[in-house]
Amino acid sequence: MNDDAARLEAEYAILAQKLEALDREVAARNDAKRRTIDAAREVGAQLARLGHAAELADVSFDHDLARRLYWNYPDLHVAEIANPMRVHEGQVSRYVGSGEFEKPCFNGCGRTVVWHMRNRTDAQRQPRYCPECQRERELQRERDLRAMRAREEAEHRESVEALRAAVDAGVEIRRYADFPGVPHTWAVDENGVPLVLRDER
Questions:
Q1: Mean pLDDT of the chain
Q2: How far apart are CA 88 and CA 108, in angstroms?
Q3: At residue 24, does pLDDT exceed 70?
Q4: Residue-wise pLDDT tens digits, 54-103
Q5: Disulfide check for 130: which of 34, 64, 88, 105 has CB 3.0–4.6 Å away?
Q6: Nearest CA to 155 among 194, 120, 184?
Q7: What is the 3-state secondary structure (H, E, C) of 45-77?
Q8: HSE (CB half, 13 Å, CA atoms) of 31?
Q9: Using an 8 Å Cβ cutoff, are 130 and 109 in contact?
Q10: Helices then strands (H, E): number in the chain?
Q11: Are 12 and 49 in contact (CB under 8 A)?
Q12: Who contacts 81 (Cβ-Cβ below 8 Å, separation ≥6)?
C-alpha cells in the first residue's frame, strides 16, 4: 500500500469515527425528545382528570393556571389546555391573553428581560440577554472576530509559504489544487499555477 492509499484509508477511518459521534448525539437528542413528549402527555392526561374533577365540583378551571400552561409549556398542546377549561382550543387565547413575562437573562447575571408575546411563536423573537450582557456579547464578538482574522492571516501566510515550497520542489499539481471544503488547497490558473502565487509575482 502506497502513502496515498494509506492516507485514503485513514480518512475513511476518521469519517467512521465522526459518524459514530454524530449517531450518539442524534440518539441522545431523539431520546430527550421522546421523554419530553411522554412527560407532556402525562401532564395532558392529568389536566383531563383535573378538568373532570373541577366539573364535578362545579368549579371553573383556574384561568391563571391556563395562562401559565399556555405561555410557559409550549410542549403542551393547546387542545389539552382547552379540555379542562371546557372550551374549544381556538378560544383558549381569549382567556390567556397576550403575554408579558420577565425571564432571567440567559447569561445568568441575575438581571431579567421582558418578553412581549401575542402567541407562542413569538417566543422565538424575544430577547435572550439583558441590555448590559447583550452589549458585552457584541463587544466580545468583535474581539473574537479580530482575533480570528489575525489567526487566519497568519495561517494563510504559513500555508502560502508551504505551497511555494511544494511548487518549487516539483510536487504534482493535484496535491495542492483546490478541493471544496479542504483547507490549504488552492485555485490554479490555466497553466497550473496557483493563483495565490501568480498574484504575488
A1: 87
A2: 39
A3: yes
A4: 999 999 999 889 988 988 888 999 999 999 999 998 888 888 877 777 88
A5: 105
A6: 184
A7: HHHHHHHHHHHHCCCCCCHHHHHHHHHHCCCCC
A8: 6
A9: yes
A10: 6, 2
A11: no
A12: 47, 66, 69, 70, 89, 92
Per the confidence metrics, is the pTM higher than 0.90? no
**Which long-range contacts link 158-167 to residues 24+ away (Cβ below 8 Å)?**
159/183, 159/184, 160/196, 160/197, 160/200, 163/194, 163/196, 163/197, 164/197, 167/194, 167/197
Helices (H), 57-130: 63-72, 78-85, 92-96
Residue 85 CB partners (closer than 8 Å, separation 6+): 51, 61, 63, 66, 92, 95
CA 131 to chain centre: 22
**C-alpha cell recorded at residue 99:** 403575554
Cell numbers at residue 79, please?
Answer: 387542545
What span, in angstroms and rounded, lies between the C-alpha atoms of 4 and 56? 78
Following DSSP, what letter does each residue of 30-48 receive, concatenated?
Answer: HHHHHHHHHHHHHHHHHHH
Cell reading at 32: 430527550
Strand partners, 177: 186
